[in-house]
Amino acid sequence: MKQAVVNIFWLLFDKLLRLSVGLFITMWLARHLGPSQFGELNFVTAFVAIFGVFATLGLKGIVVRDLVNRPSDRDYIMGSAFSLKIIGAILTYLCLIIFIFLFLPNENETKLFVAIVGISILFKTSEIVNFYFEAKVLSKHVVWVENGAFAISSSVKLILLWLQAPLIAFLIAISIEALLIGIALLLLYQRKVSTIFSWKISKKHMSSLLAQSWPLIISSAAWIIYTRIDQIMLGKMLDQQAVGFYSAAVKLTELANILPMIITFSLVPLITPLREKNRALYHRKFQLTYDCAVGLMIAGAILTMFIGSFVVNTLYGSAYAATTPVLVIHVWTCVFIAMATVSGKYLINEGLQKITMQRHVFGVCLNIPLNYLVIPLYGIEGAACASLISLAVSNYFFDALSKNTRICFIQKSKALVLMGFIETVWKRKI
């Protein structure tokens, strides 16, 4: 547990540093570009994010689990996963280029923007190194490397802002940051662990990884689609200014989502070995993880309802006043994203990746029609409501339908009403 606390500290330090600098840059960038161009920026990044998820191949949770359970197979696991990610990244980028020429035939500038940011997909293959250090609960090494690259990238963005550079310059900076982090991660592994040339490619391991990960590929794609598709639909059904207002709110809720992610990714590698040793303790530890993650998000959402207008006006200025009602609605999605983060790890441990896929696909099938119905009627507030409803149904109520996930539904319900926390305190008193 001490190791988990140290790991959480390093991840928290990393995220807080990035948040403070990133928030300042985002605020300045939003003011510099204005709602319309800020909307264009987020339309492009959402487009790339939807394609980029296919390049990940859903390997993260599986690779981390395998490295925890089979450390002696490290080189085969790392080499096979890295090879798959390279192949996936190249194919994904080619598909992205083909798609933008079909989907955006008359928008030459937007096509150029998407192609530039899409290059970052190729550089993210080296995040496999991140998986290794997460499995070993040694995130401090990655923190220093990524923060170094982030510092360089942030400095470049600040210079561009000072020079009042055009939008395309900031899009190029996104790909440059991905390149710097990619190179730095490979050098980190080379220095702290072993040469990357010791990695071995095994068809058996590659087949095994793909066989286990394909449901996660689909579920990850579904997840990113229904957390990004609203921005693309707003851009096509309304205009880029609407995307700008909406994205300003989403940026703030995305920052909040980092907290449950840190808690989950640090605790689950330590909880996982308990599955075979002490099943009851294993479930209690997962309940504690739910309590922490969901409780934090509920507290933050309630607070945002009171200070949302002040936050938006302070960070973005009066030009983004339309963002406030979106933020007050959208911040509640953080509660259900926290649930999804924790239960996603549980389902991987239980070998139930297909349920994650079903859950996310169901969410997409609900979210897209909802957006089509409510965006023409209620605009950006309607899109926020559609996201909230689809996340709540697919990541909470959906779990009640299957006996395999009913324990997730019960634990999430306890976390929603703080029952897990109350039970823990009560038992300690007894």
From TrEMBL:
Record keyword NAD present:
no
Please give the coiled-coil regions recorded for this protein: none
- Ranges annotated as spanning the membrane: 7-29, 41-63, 84-106, 112-133, 142-162, 168-189, 209-229, 249-271, 292-315, 327-348, 360-380
Topology relative to the membrane, per the entry? Multi-pass membrane protein
Q: Where in the cell is it found?
A: Membrane
Q: Principal place where this protein is found?
A: membrane
Q: Which InterPro entries match?
A: Polysacc_synth, PolySynth_Transporter
Q: Name one Pfam family in it.
A: Polysacc_synt
**Record has Transmembrane helix as a keyword:** yes
Name the GO cellular-component terms.
membrane
* Record key words, sorted: Membrane, Transmembrane, Transmembrane helix
PANTHER family, A to Z: LOCUS PUTATIVE PROTEIN 1-RELATED (PTHR43424:SF1)
Provide the protein name: Flippase
